[in-house]
Amino acid sequence: MSTKITTNTLDTSTEEPTLTTTTTNSTINDIKDTNTNSLSSSTICTAGHRLLMEMAIKQAHLSIPVESAYCVGCVIVQSNSAESIDQDKTITVTPMATGFSRELPGNTHAEECALMKLKMDEQSAFGCDMYTTMEPCSKRLSGKEPCVKHIINAKVGRVFIGTREPDHFVKCKGVNLLLQAGIEVYDVEFDGVRAACLEPNQHIAKFKT
Q: Which listed residue (16, 83, 103, 111) is catalytic?
């Protein structure tokens, strides 16, 4: 898989994001990293995907920094929300759930928080699209379950990533594990996206500018 979809400039003067759904994935209780040579994420860049990633970036800035963890933002929307925005710029997409690092008690991650809030609202993430500023974790030093496991078990349809997790704390295999589980993974690309996703992490010496 290696589709590249490019677009012109983005008009961000519109409001915030409404939606639809379909897609299935199997629940995985035991995540294992097997041979993924034939698997790869795709790169995507359209105005709709950029708008939704920028929503996730805003969430990341709400995180309270701690030296031992990243500040990440996440937005969950109904499937094909970005495509709907691309077809009709007047459409407003309202996220089903949002999350940011440590938003909820228990040393929680952004994706975990968004999924927890969705569950609290008695909504399902089945087939939905998730936008996260950083690659979902595959291993947590705290021993808690990684975000990839929560995403796979929730049967999210597609995951859109702003930047891969840097090899600072652990070596992340989140993208590979999601692809192995049959979940589509896309790297969202637009000018400055990686810097924007890492900017909330200036508290970590490695990312200070």
A: 111
